[in-house]
């Protein structure tokens, strides 16, 4: 695939161009390549994790986790979060699939455009944050990992996680705001990782989301995986919808476009009856939707014929309410404490076995996120799923 060359400009002009771009209306317009043969990816690997001249950083997970802990020895302790077990039957879940969703905060945005006024600059440095990010992932060891705002994919996350047995796909935004920040590490985007010992790749597609058939600046990665234990397939997607107030209509259109693409992907594979929106292949859709639960895009997912539900509602007493927050930050405009991140799943085909609880306000602290204890303004979501048996 050819690399798209984008002229840099102000954020507003780039967004206008993305929404009003003339030409083809297909979302399969050229994207920056998800798998580069880039020479820089081979030569600029993070020296703290990777040996010089290596393209993969092989690690023992326990040793790498200890390396992170040693590097963070002078920092406050990480949040202690526990898994809530929802499986009440006598037998334990067989071979659950652990899923992790996380907006990790693009480095260029954290140090530049996002203006976390209560967070010390030292806590925002990549030399500190990278250890917290790797530690968080290693602590929970997901089989499938969905990340947004990734701008250190080629030099850090991909080689480190490849050394732990993960395969991955990365799709940068066509006009990433990171490129407006001096000294940036390239565009941010969405990345999907999966444990190769648990899954084999069947298919993977990177798309540019559309609104009213017009390509936008937001992307998604969709991957079809086959479980090596059950031989069953699961279709996974990661996305990051348009941010900011006043763009509800755009997020709703992007969500509809993503659902349409997912339905098409599922239907082209065995086990999916042509034209039937409910197939034998379950969906797992992760993302920072930049939308609170009463927004239209959320309702589109709730009412979709794909029979989706939000896993983190399981934390509430009634099973119907999202957490109070998945992001909590302080910017010059004020404090923002809200729910924007979700793990959607096919409720007729998958069962939620466990959900990682949220840290308390006391744990997060008065200066909120990010901090020396936590590298992002968004909290990670982690769930264990099992395939439901056919009745």
Overview of this structure, please?
This protein is of the alpha+beta class. It has one domain: Endonuclease/exonuclease/phosphatase (Deoxyribonuclease I, Chain A), CATH 3.60.10. It is built from ten helices and 15 strands. A seven-stranded mixed beta sheet has the order 1-14-15-2-3-5-4, covered by helices on one side. A six-stranded mixed beta sheet has the order 6-7-8-9-13-10. Strands 11-12 form a two-stranded antiparallel ribbon. Helix 3 packs antiparallel against helix 6 and helix 8 packs parallel to helix 9. It is globular, with a radius of gyration of 20 Å. The termini are far apart. Mean pLDDT is 87; it is low at 1-30, 32-42 and 272-278.
What is the gist of this entry?
It is built from ten helices and 15 strands.
List the helices and strands and how they pair.
Layout: H1 11-20, H2 39-43, H3 61-71, E1 83-85, E2 97-103, H4 107-113, H5 121-124, H6 126-140, E3 144-150, H7 153-162, E4 166-172, E5 189-195, E6 199-211, E7 214-227, E8 233-240, H8 248-267, E9 283-288, H9 296-302, E10 308-310, E11 327-331, E12 334-338, E13 341-346, E14 350-356, H10 361-364, E15 381-387
Parallel strand pairs: 2-3, 8-9
Antiparallel strand pairs: 1-14, 2-15, 3-5, 4-5, 6-7, 7-8, 9-13, 10-13, 11-12, 14-15
Helix pairs in contact: 3-6, 8-9
Cofactor: Mg(2+)
Protein name: Nocturnin
Keywords: Biological rhythms, Cytoplasm, Hydrolase, Magnesium, Metal-binding
Global structural class = alpha+beta
| Percent in helix | 10-25%
Tell me the name of the CATH homologous superfamily. Answer: Endonuclease/exonuclease/phosphatase
Spatial order of strands in the largest sheet: 1-14-15-2-3-5-4
Cofactor: Mg(2+)
GO molecular function, one term: poly(A)-specific ribonuclease activity
Keywords: Biological rhythms, Cytoplasm, Hydrolase, Magnesium, Metal-binding
Main location: cytoplasm
């Amino acid at each position: 695939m050819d690399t798209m060359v984008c002229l840099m400009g102000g954020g507003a002009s780039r967004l206008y161009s993305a929404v009003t771009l003339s030409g083809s209306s297909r979302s399969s317009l050229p994207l920056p390549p998800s798998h580069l043969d880039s020479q820089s990816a081979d030569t600029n690997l993070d020296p703290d994790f990777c040996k010089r001249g290596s393209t993969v950083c092989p690690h023992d997970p326990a040793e790498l986790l200890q390396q992170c802990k040693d590097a963070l020895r002078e920092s406050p302790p990480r949040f202690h979060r526990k898994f809530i077990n929802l499986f009440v039957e006598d037998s334990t879940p067989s071979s659950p699939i652990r899923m992790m969703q996380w907006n990790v905060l693009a480095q260029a945005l954290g140090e530049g455009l996002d203006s976390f006024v209560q967070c010390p600059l030292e806590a925002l440095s990549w030399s500190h944050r990278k250890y917290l990010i790797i530690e968080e992932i290693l602590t929970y060891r997901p089989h499938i990992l969905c990340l947004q705002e990734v701008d250190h994919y080629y030099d850090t996350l991909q080689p480190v996680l490849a050394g732990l047995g993960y395969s991955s796909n990365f799709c940068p935004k066509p006009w990433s705001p990171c490129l407006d920040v001096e000294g940036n590490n390239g565009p941010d985007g969405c990345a999907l990782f999966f444990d190769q010992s648990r899954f084999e790749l069947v298919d993977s597609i990177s798309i540019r989301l559309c609104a009213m058939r017009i390509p936008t600046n937001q992307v998604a990665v969709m991957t079809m995986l086959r479980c090596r234990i059950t031989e069953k397939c699961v279709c996974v997607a990661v996305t990051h919808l348009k941010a900011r107030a006043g763009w509800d209509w755009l997020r709703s259109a992007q969500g509809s476009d993503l659902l349409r693409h997912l339905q098409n992907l599922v239907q082209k594979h065995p086990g999916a009856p042509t034209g039937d929106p409910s197939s034998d292949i379950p969906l797992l859709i992760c993302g920072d939707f930049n939308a609170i639960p009463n927004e239209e895009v959320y309702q589109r997912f709730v009412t979709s014929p794909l029979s989706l539900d939000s896993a983190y509602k399981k934390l509430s007493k009634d099973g119907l309410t999202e957490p109070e927050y998945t992001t909590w930050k302080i910017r010059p405009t004020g404090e923002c404490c809200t729910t924007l991140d979700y793990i959607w799943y096919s409720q007729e085909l998958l069962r939620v076995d466990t959900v990682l609880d949220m840290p308390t306000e006391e744990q997060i602290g008065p200066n909120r996120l990010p901090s020396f204890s936590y590298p992002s303004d968004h909290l990670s979501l982690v769930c264990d799923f099992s395939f439901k048996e056919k009745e």
